[in-house]
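Onboarding guide, step 5: your first structure request.
Type a short instruction followed by the sequence, for example:

Predict the 3D structure of this protein.
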Amino acid sequence: MPQAFITGGSGFLGRNMITFLVNQGWKVNALVRSKKAAVTVENLGATPITGDLKNIEAMQNGMINSQAVFHSAAYVRDWGRYKDVYQDNVVGTENVLTAARAAKIPRFVHVGTEAVLVGGPP
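The system replies with structure tokens like these:
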């Protein structure tokens, strides 16, 4: 059975990716920050991995035996401090890539939305 690791699994894109992958016969591990998010991904058939985009070790452990990483977590609020947006969307993505490289994941898919560009050029 193929296996994937997903960030942002309790969000709109992530929930739909989990549903699709589980229906295709994949085992899915999903990074979660809260108990509420854990319940959401469990109800979709994924295994919650507690951590956040700052915790490279938690992500790397969740990626063990995965063939693909789907990164859909992002700071998408309408307003926010530049530091927070940068930390989640740039440093967070770098951390997911670092974990994926360390875990020797052959495929990395970065899924995004125009919502991260509010007020800025594409």
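Each response can be followed by summary notes, for example: The chain has one domain: 3-117.
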